[in-house]
């Protein structure tokens, strides 16, 4: 995390305002700009099928960033991120269908609805800690799945189509679907990252970290623990809600299966694999988990071709959860700080080269 | 009327009286020390003032505020800051970030302007950063500004703890054993800081300390607790001459049975410091 980085050479800051900057020096700013340009040009060279994975990585990146706010930065375990995505998706799509809202209002409405529910679900966090809180969020996930499944208004969990989107004259069509959404999701992700980075350098972000590190001391600093925890839950579920609406529009409909407990656990796994309390980690995690899925598909295809198993056994269905579980276990054992810590080490190595770090 | 008035405070934990009927008064701009053997209830009393415990009976008034039922963050808002006995710093954060956290109640902007950051939030953050720098200068922490607190030595962490409490800009500062585990030089520094805090910032100080030499030197007023009861109070000279205080610290006197293993244990461990009472 940049907050705890020592200042390095090339730092010529003379005012406190300059010291608030997101980047330690101009070099970092240039790298970020280059990265954004590279991301904007990436679809030119990536195959269209892979672009679909990029879209999913970014959508789950938003959800993982939200979970990182609640779990990584504030230390409140939330297993119901899937349900918060679902609240956003259903609210956004149903409202968009009913009131003919365009995508951006649907995103805002979905996010705010999820934040509202997040505030309510966060209430037990004022009393419960650690695993007990995790179970409370798990209960919300079950209530959500059951509630949607029994609600006529929400088609009892069946598909509710999302309206077609057209922005600045560009239309979502069959051939350009993945490309269209790539350029739509990328700026939304970048914007949400910037918003969180801004919150993080002010009093609100600091107070969340304080609650995580030492809630007694945080209270002695005049921070109201209840306000901070609810803010964290609401922010985290706002991000989940936005991700949920995007996922619904991207897959052209809302189905309850997309927002079940397994999704919440997958997002939690992404957050842990990426690195708790790290912004780049929130994108590394989804990239790793979704990438792993694709690799396992290839492996399964190859294994299937070897005719080792009786026909009718789908190797992929066995390999995917197996590799997923193994990856999480290995990360928890050997790299509890996630991919983000490798990223930090790599950056330090490059910065200090040719000196040893 | 003093700044902090504690009247008849009783604190009970399931039948055990941690404090029974303690009354004490802290006038503005004074350094008031609370001393007593281990387990006397000093920290419990501080916890009652700062809102971590709520007294079973009695009242604690700070100015016009009643603190008996107030939560810790509310008490802090009234202008009472506290440095903890066992370091309660945010270990992963830097010194500057720890101190900025103490500006929380002074930094006023909404979450929305925080999300935009540029403009209002940026300006207010910079102003408060400037205040933090003043405290860093005052507490001589310049060399550690950007170091994660967890990496600093114990003595420096203690100083950061006091600095953080001071950054809250309190009217009343509660210090719980700020000199425990320090060498003589570090203790001298800390005493100098405490005296400067009173002189330059006009802050009232309530000090819990085991080093009776320090206590008798710098306090305007000393209160002595033993087994949750206030047994003496007054100027350092009055207190060190009080026979009940000498008895509590040495076990020598009329009240206790000398063969009682508990009290003789206490006596031997406190012998050294008790020597300073009479010295």
Which secondary structure elements does this structure contain, and how are they paired or packed?
The complex is a heterodimer of chains A (357) and B (279).
Chain A: H1 16-19, H2 26-41, H3 48-73, H4 81-99, H5 103-121, H6 130-149, E1 160-161, E2 166-167, E3 170-171, H7 177-200, H8 203-213, H9 215-220, H10 225-250, E4 253-254, H11 261-274, H12 279-305, H13 315-334, H14 338-352
Chain B: E1 4-13, E2 16-26, E3 31-35, H1 42-49, E4 57-62, E5 65-66, H2 72-78, E6 80-83, H3 95-101, H4 111-116, H5 120-138, H6 154-167, E7 172-176, H7 184-201, E8 204-208, H8 212-218, E9 221-226, E10 229-234, H9 236-241, H10 243-250, H11 261-278
Parallel strand pairs in B: 3-8, 3-9, 6-7, 7-8
Antiparallel strand pairs in B: 1-2, 1-4, 4-5, 9-10
Following the backbone from N to C, one meets helices and strands of chain A in this order, namely: HHHHHHEEEHHHHEHHHH
Largest sheet features of chain A = 2 strands, antiparallel
Low-confidence blocks of residues of chain A: 1-5
Quaternary organization: heterodimer
């Amino acid at each position: 995390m940049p907050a705890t980085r020592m200042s390095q050479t090339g730092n010529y800051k003379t005012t406190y305002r300059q010291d608030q900057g997101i980047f330690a020096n101009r070099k970092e700013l240039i790298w970020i700009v280059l990265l954004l340009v590279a991301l904007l040009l990436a679809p030119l060279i990536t195959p269209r099928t892979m672009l679909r994975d990029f879209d999913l990585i970014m959508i789950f990146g938003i959800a993982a960033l939200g979970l990182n706010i609640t779990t990584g930065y504030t230390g409140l375990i939330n297993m119901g991120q899937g349900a918060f995505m679902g609240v956003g998706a259903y609210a956004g799509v149903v409202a968009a269908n009913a009131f003919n809202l365009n995508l951006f209002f649907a995103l805002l409405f979905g996010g705010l609805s999820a934040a509202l529910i997040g505030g309510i679900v966060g209430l037990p966090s004022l009393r419960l800690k650690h695993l007990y809180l995790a179970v409370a969020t798990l209960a919300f996930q079950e209530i959500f799945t059951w509630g949607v499944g029994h609600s006529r208004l929400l088609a009892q969990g069946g598909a509710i189509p999302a309206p077609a989107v057209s922005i600045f004259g560009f239309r979502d069509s069959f051939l350009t679907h993945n490309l269209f959404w790539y350029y739509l999701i990328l700026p939304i992700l970048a914007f949400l990252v910037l918003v969180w980075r801004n919150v993080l350098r002010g009093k609100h972000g600091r107070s969340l970290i304080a609650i995580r590190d030492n809630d007694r001391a945080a209270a002695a600093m005049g921070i109201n623990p209840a306000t901070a925890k609810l803010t964290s839950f609401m922010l985290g579920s706002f991000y989940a809600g936005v991700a949920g609406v995007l996922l619904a529009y991207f897959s052209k409909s809302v189905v309850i299966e997309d927002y079940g407990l397994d999704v919440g656990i997958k997002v939690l796994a992404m957050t842990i694999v990426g690195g708790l309390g790290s912004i780049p980690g929130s994108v590394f995690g989804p990239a790793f988990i979704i990438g792993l899925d694709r690799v396992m598909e290839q492996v399964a295809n190859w294994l299937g071709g070897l005719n080792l198993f009786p026909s009718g056994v789908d190797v992929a269905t066995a390999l995917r959860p197996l590799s997923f579980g193994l990856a999480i276990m290995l990360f928890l054992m050997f790299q509890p700080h996630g991919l983000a810590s490798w990223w930090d080490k790599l950056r330090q190595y490059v910065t200090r080269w040719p000196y040893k770090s | 009327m003093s700044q902090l008035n504690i009247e008849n405070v009783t604190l009970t934990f399931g039948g055990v009286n941690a404090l029974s009927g303690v009354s004490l008064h802290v006038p503005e701009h004074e350094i008031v020390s609370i001393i007593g053997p281990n387990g006397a209830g000093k920290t419990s009393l501080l916890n009652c003032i700062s809102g971590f415990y709520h007294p079973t009976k009695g009242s604690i008034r700070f100015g016009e505020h009643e603190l008996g039922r107030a939560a810790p963050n509310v008490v802090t808002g009234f202008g009472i800051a506290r440095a903890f006995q066992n370091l309660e710093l945010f270990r992963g954060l830097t010194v500057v970030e720890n101190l900025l956290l103490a500006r929380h109640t002074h930094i006023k902007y909404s979450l929305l302007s925080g999300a935009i950051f540029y403009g209002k939030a940026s300006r207010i953050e910079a102003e408060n950063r400037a205040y933090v720098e003043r405290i860093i200068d005052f507490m001589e922490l310049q060399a550690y500004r950007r170091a994660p607190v967890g990496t600093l030595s114990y003595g420096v962490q203690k100083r950061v703890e006091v600095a953080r409490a001071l950054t809250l800009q309190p009217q009343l500062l509660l210090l719980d054993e700020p000199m425990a585990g320090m060498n003589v030089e570090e203790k001298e520094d800390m005493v100098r800081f405490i005296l400067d805090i009173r002189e330059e910032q006009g802050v009232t100080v309530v000090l819990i300390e085991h080093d009776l030499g320090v206590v008798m030197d710098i306090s305007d007023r000393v209160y002595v607790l033993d087994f949750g009861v206030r047994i003496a109070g007054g100027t350092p000279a009055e207190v060190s001459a009080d026979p009940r205080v000498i008895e509590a610290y040495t076990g020598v006197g009329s009240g206790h049975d000398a063969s009682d293993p508990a009290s003789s244990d206490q006596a031997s461990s406190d012998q050294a410091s008790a020597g300073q009472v009479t010295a």
